[in-house]
Amino acid sequence: MFYLLLSLAIILEVIAVFFLNLTNGFTNFVPTVFAILFYCSSIAAYMLLNAKGEVGGCMLEEQPYLWLSQVLSFLMKLFPCLKS
């Protein structure tokens, strides 16, 4: 399962790079949307690997959503307007 999700994340990122080349500096709307969609999907697949404890050593049984709380706290620090 690990290699399947890792392969999926890599393939999604390659597709995103293909669409990124078509965006023409983010002036073409449709390829831009697809590039963002595939990049987000690639990151989500990789985060799913982290959530299962297969990458990075996060123990799922002890703290199942530790990675999510860390990502959210980072985003709150990066974008203070999200705190409201």
Describe, in plain words, how this protein is organized in 3D:
- Helix content is 68%, strand content 0%.
- It is flat.
- It contains 3 helices and no strands.
- The longest helix is centred in the middle third of the chain and has 23 residues.
- Helix 1 runs antiparallel to helix 2.
> In terms of quaternary structure, what is this?
single chain
Give the amount of beta strand, in percent: under 5%
What structural class do helix, strand and pairing data support? mainly alpha
Number of E strands: 0
User: Are there runs of 5+ residues with pLDDT below 50, and where?
Assistant: none
Mean pLDDT: 77
CA-atom Rg in angstroms: 16 Å
Biggest β-sheet, characterized?
Answer: none
Question: What is the ordering of alpha helices and beta strands?
Answer: HHH
Principal-axes shape call: flat
What is the count of DSSP helices, taking H or I runs of 4+ residues? 3
CA distance, first residue to last residue: 39 Å
